[in-house]
Specification:
Layout: E1 8-9, E2 14-19, E3 24-27, E4 32-39, E5 42-47, E6 52-56, H1 87-94, E7 112-119, E8 125-131, H2 141-152, E9 158-165, H3 178-183
Parallel strand pairs: 8-9
Antiparallel strand pairs: 1-4, 2-3, 2-6, 4-5, 5-6, 7-8
Amino acid sequence: MSTNSPATILSRDVEAIQIPSGLTKKLPQGTPVIITQALGGTYTVVVEHSAGLFRVLAQDADALGKAAAPAAPNGASAAPAGGTLKEDDIWAQLKTCYDPEIPVNIVDLGLIYSMEIKPQEGGGNLVEVKMTLTAPGCGMGPSIASDAQRKILTVPGVTDAQVDVVWDPPWSAERISQEGKQKLGMI
């Protein structure tokens, strides 16, 4: 994290998620922040006057002077061409989700334990994901799981998604992929 980055002044009030507690806090218009990470459509910012880290969601990117992300569908995605949902499409979406403090996606961090596609009566698919966090005390679990759920729901053919945070087995650094280890300078 470079503290030499110029501050961005929030152009409007923003509901942000405090890291690592996961609590929501209103950052008022005019607050100076420094963007420390911008990955997967979310932003990690440090609030200059409090040295606190916060996650700003894509829907509030405009308050940071960034282009607002398009809204994700509400789980009513049409079936994909050919009628078959591809597991790779869901994995690709999960790779756009990031821990707000670590510049590696949740798949390459080894946080995803399982993913299952369940066809639903009347069409569409339910996607069930079991994931963990790098530390049991991290309050960001609901935020990261919600981000993953929103992104899964953008995949054509997915009509519902459930992302559960689990703790068994405990996460360890051995679960990090080779690509993740490279990004973290571990190899």
